[in-house]
Automatic annotation (TrEMBL):
Record-annotated AAA+ ATPase domain positions: 258-393
InterPro entries, per the entry: AAA+_ATPase, P-loop_NTPase, SLFN_3-like_DNA/RNA_helicase
Name the record gives this protein: DUF2075 domain-containing protein
A Pfam cross-reference name: SLFN-g3_helicase
Length: 611
């Protein structure tokens, strides 16, 4: 969807008559259905468009070049600042994506394609942003990848005076700046020449039409690229009944004649994510399929498991958050594959504009495949149950197929350990009251949190994946309070002189695979759906045990996830159930072993007695 379109001549006139920001605002409100425009965004339009008007006027390009402003990339929340369309000397049709920034300073980081600014902390390099938009259109816009239309990209920081040395041109950014040129305050003439070279001869209106009306489907090149990524990646190798479930689900999806829903249930380590990722690779070859996951950390780690950091943008638009489908037209997608579906949200979810993400997804896809473990629901707004999906299926008159995964491949295949966790946390009575075969899986209760930390560090030093996790029983200092990089050691146990920071806010959703992650403590939101070789779990005072009643309980003040306990202040049993679900998730992230430290000694006594 494009908010503002015009010829280059019309755009210059709107700039020179001071109408441009008003026209963009009006167009945005109408196109996107917004109630109002942020004042900072409108200020940016006023500033940047004056510069762009001057650049286009001085470049002496044809009057009938096309101008697109605030183009919403379909099926995403991303908006492209500025696009110019036209032809070159050889009459080839081209378009240029221009990322505009108000920045005056920035710092280089050690992360490929990521810079640091005082405005928002870690951000994508402007050239990388422009490049990623170009790549999206070349990979997903049918009118572009099926034609000879050529795409170019660049970034223009019109307020930015080049430094010596210039952080934005550091060696780590060389390849992306070469692919997508960076123009700073004193580079206006170079930008004018860039524009004149590729679109200077005009005839841009047809190109605008091609960009706006192109169907959004992955190109064959992208599909082949994804298939190659999976081909030699043993992380996604299917085992035993995973293969059976994969083939059955694939068959349902490819042969669906009407709206169809497939529900696949299974506990930790049964292979839900392995199957879901393989379904994406297989179904992409014949259908417009997209992978959906409510949790950003899970999505990002799945993408990172497939490709390098620089290649992430090539496939990341095949991986979407669960709020992406609000307002989507019916059957926009052939197939949506929803992993961690138990975390789908209702209208209470932060920043979600809809009412029910299950309904959004079923409406948006001809076939919806949901992977569920209801024991991993951890917040009051989690609604992804079999019952809810079945209810929505009836509303849409959809056929429903259900599969259940039982064989367990995490925790060294120790079904007994996971069954014991379910029993000892009083989530489900199982046959493992007195433990499991200890040779299958290492479990150790630590008397000192420092012992737990040393055990995890030693495993990490051995080249194994090892992380410390904890329940949300300690505060998490905000980034603007000096905690952007995990500087503040919030998780503190003074009696043992133990303290560590929570997972770094700057790492965002990739904490689980970042090198510095071993020196930080993860939570359920940065580890759910993921697995490690070993985990150390600190069980906080949000989980307590009453030896008289032999029941767990949670005190409202001890559980510090504000959103996680919203509306539950008078529902202690419901709150405690969610807390126990969280610790079940944390205690089952390890494939080879788990070390535990308990804040509440009654909980520890009960675990020791049961193990």
């Amino acid at each position: 969807m494009i908010a503002y379109t015009n010829t280059s001549k019309g755009f210059i006139e709107d700039v020179e008559t001071n109408q441009i920001s008003t026209k963009i605002r009006t167009a945005v409100l109408q196109a996107f259905g917004w109630a109002k425009v942020n004042s900072k965004e409108e200020e940016a339009w006023i500033n940047s468009m004056q510069f762009m008007g001057n650049v286009i006027r001085r470049s002496s390009i044809a009057d009938d070049c096309g101008v697109l402003i605030e183009y919403n990339l379909p099926s995403t929340s991303l908006r492209v600042d500025f696009i110019l369309t036209g032809t070159d000397e050889a009459e080839k049709q081209n378009f240029i994506i221009i990322e505009l920034k108000q920045w005056k300073e920035a710092s280089a980081t050690t992360k490929d394609g990521v810079v640091f600014t005082s405005y928002h902390g870690n951000e994508a390099h402007p050239s990388y942003q422009a490049y990623s938009y170009k790549l999206f259109l070349k990979d997903f816009n049918e009118n572009i990848y099926n034609s000879s239309l050529r795409a170019f990209s660049c970034a223009y920081l019109h307020n930015y005076v080049e430094k010596d040395p210039e952080p934005l041109k550091a060696k780590i950014y060389e390849s992306i700046v070469k692919e997508s040129p960076l123009y700073l305050k004193n580079d206006q003439k170079k930008l004018e020449e860039f524009i004149r070279t590729y679109v200077g001869k005009g005839k841009g209106s047809d190109i605008i039409y091609h960009i706006e009306k192109g169907n959004i489907r992955p190109s064959k090149k992208l599909i082949d690229h994804v298939a190659e990524l999976f081909k030699h990646n043993m992380l996604f190798h299917l085992l035993d009944n995973q293969k059976v479930a994969f083939e059955i689900a694939k068959d349902f999806a490819l042969n669906a004649k009407s709206k169809t829903i497939v529900i696949i249930t299974g506990g930790p380590g049964t292979g839900k994510s392995v199957i879901s990722m393989n379904l994406l690779a297989a179904l992409l070859k014949k259908k417009n399929a997209v992978f959906v996951a409510p949790t950003a950390s899970f999505r990002d780690v799945m993408v990172s498991a497939l490709t390098s950091s620089f290649g992430v943008n090539r496939i990341k638009h095949l991986f979407k958050g669960s709020s992406s489908f609000f307002g989507a037209k019916k059957n926009t997608f052939d197939i949506l594959i929803v992993d961690e579906a138990h975390r789908l949200k209702n209208e209470k979810a932060f920043m979600y504009k809809g009412k029910n993400q299950v309904e959004d997804i079923v409406n948006a896809a001809q076939v919806s495949i949901f992977f569920i473990d209801e024991k991993q629901m951890i917040r009051p707004d989690d609604i992804g149950t079999v019952q809810e999906i079945t209810r929505v299926a009836q509303l849409h008159k959809a056929q429903v197929h259900t599969l259940n995964l039982t064989a367990q491949f995490r925790c060294s295949g120790a079904d007994g350990y996971i069954n014991w966790i379910d029993d000892v946390l009083q989530l489900q009575a199982t046959g493992n009251f007195n433990g499991w075969d200890k040779q299958d899986f290492e479990f150790k209760i630590c008397d000192d949190p420092n012992e737990l930390r040393e055990l995890i560090k030693s495993k990490n030093d051995e080249g194994l994946k090892a992380r410390i996790l904890a329940g949300y029983a300690w505060k998490w200092t905000a980034a603007d309070a000096g905690n952007l990089y995990g500087e503040i050691e919030d998780v503190s146990i003074p009696e043992f002189d133990f303290s560590m920071p929570w997972n770094s806010r700057s790492s965002g959703s990739t904490w689980a695979i970042d090198e510095e992650g071993v020196d930080q403590i993860g939570c359920v939101h940065t580890s759910q759906g993921l697995e490690f070789d070993y985990v150390g779990v600190i069980i906080g005072n949000d989980l307590r045990f009453n030896p008289t009643t032999s029941q767990y309980f949670t005190q409202w003040k001890e559980y510090l996830d504000t959103k996680g306990k919203s509306g539950l202040n008078k529902k202690p049993a419901d709150l405690n159930k969610l807390v126990r679900n969280i610790y079940r998730i944390l205690l089952t992230r390890g494939m080879k072993g788990c070390y535990v430290y308990f804040m509440d000694k009654e909980v520890e006594k009960y675990f020791r007695m049961r193990s």
